[in-house]
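If you are new to this repository, start here. Below is one unmodified record pulled from the training split, so you can see the exact layout before writing a loader.
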Amino acid sequence: MVIERVIANIKHIDIGSKHVDNVWVTHEDLLKPHQKLVSESGRILKISLDDGQKLKNGDILYENDESVAVLTLKAEKVFEIIPKNNMEWAKAAFNIGNMHQKLYIFEDKLCVPYDNVLERVIKALNVEWHITETTLNGLLANVNIGSSHSHSHSHTHSHEHSHGHSHQGGHNHE
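And here is the target side for that same chain:
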């Protein structure tokens, strides 16, 4: 079965007595508009969303008279960072972003999928943190403009003195 759009989110509608057929996914799965998933009951769902549509925890992908297939986030191993002030929030977010890691923002913490290389960076931040298992259903801090393909960065800076501007810099994305 091909799913081209999300029906609704289970948080916003009453499904009555219908059985919830969970489709267990990771935070990475939510970022993929085209993929094949399997529900707990074994139903194969081929996801093919239009550009710009995003999957969310609780999205209903399929519905019939007896059941609904619902995207349900799995708990994953993460770094949970608990900054105490604005400086710690900024330092943690900047350094994790600089490592091109996915960062999820919650009211009182930041969560990052576990990566053994990242552990050294997090230790060096001197902020409260620990490793735990949780669902990554916070606000994804990383902004992705365009398609979901990988890309490289080249940074160019020029120092020109024209029309009163003393510094001109830019980022080229290839």
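Two things worth knowing about this chain: The two ends are 36 Å apart (CA to CA). The chain has three helices and 14 strands.
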